[in-house]
Amino acid sequence: MASLRDESWLWLCLWTINNIGVTLLNKITFAMVDFQYPYFLSFVHMLCNSLGTQYIFWQIKQDDKTGTESSIQKLLGHLVRRDLDATGKSYILWFSLIFSLNIAIGNVSLRYVSVNFNQVMRSLVPCFTIFLGLLVGKTFTCRRIASVVPIIVGVMMACFGDMEYTILGFVYTLCCVILAALKAVVAGEMLTGSLKLHPVDLLGHLAPLAMIQCIIMSLATGEIPAILRRPELYLTDPRPAIVILFSGLCSFSLNITSLMTNKLTSPLTLTIAGNVKQVMMIVISTIVFATPITPLNGFGIVVVLIGSAIYSFVSLKDKKDDSASSTVLRKTSMEPDDETNIPVIVQNTGNCRDVRPAILTSRSNSRESGV
């Protein structure tokens, strides 16, 4: 069976399809059922994620008893439930807070800024992802950083429209962008760093905490009393409950593909894919919902598509260079120098490899944040 890393682009495609599907589901169905309670909806999503991960681990226990390998294990690879120490649990708690704050501040920001302004600001997430990655000792080549620029500019052009915002809204949106980048980087560290959690295991630890935090926010904002005053949402008409439950199941699928993609590629690649998805949604909305676009929007879409192709090419080339460099390093470090009988240490200085703070250069063997 091919390694999970060999399937990284498959998971990236699955994540993109899931993301677009969930967005379209929200756009079409929630307008029908008029369910405007984002925190309670997030609570339902996290409930479905908690139950979904528990089912996966139950299925794995059954496989262990029977000595068989289910389709779940074939799809997700080797999966073991890890018991975390106090440090690991504190990491999970902090990550759940980042996750919940990202939802909360994201919802609040839309009250003070237009959707177009929000989308343009969110196109900057890859910039913050690079900056935060450098702070934790990750490396990016100059060409990889440069390949991000046309994608960001293209998304800004594609989303440009009626831009309305307030200073408070700008601050909220900026915080939301930073949290989105922080979430991607922290998830990458938890999946590939010292904890090395499997994506399903991470989701299993994260979802119950996020579920509690989301229901607290729902109570604090008055959503639950408002829902109780509308019995048609849960008694007289079954459609809203069915739609909300289906949305929760889709959320579980989306989170699995998101974390698998984060582990197998990188947080930067995931945020770039998010920008590409954003542009794809503009195209789909234009076709399905007859949403008008300006020539500037259309040109921005073309720039993003070309830029994403360039980024994919550069990303693959960097991975090949990293692999070749690691092979040379292993070989030369085992061979004594003819003059001094001291092992030779090969340093990779090409392609501006060490683009990071000097204080972090001792972590030169850490790979780019990989989801």
From TrEMBL:
Domain Sugar phosphate transporter: start-end pairs: 11-312
Keywords (A to Z) from UniProt: Membrane, Transmembrane, Transmembrane helix
Entry keyword annotation includes Ligase: no
GO CC terms in record: membrane
Mode of membrane association: Multi-pass membrane protein
Membrane-spanning ranges: 12-33, 39-58, 91-113, 119-137, 169-188, 200-221, 241-261, 296-314
Keyword tRNA-binding belongs to the record: no
One Pfam short name: TPT
InterPro entries: Sugar_P_trans_dom, TPT_transporter
Record's subcellular location: Membrane
Protein name: Triose-phosphate transporter family protein
Lineage: Eukaryota, Sar, Stramenopiles, Ochrophyta, Bacillariophyta
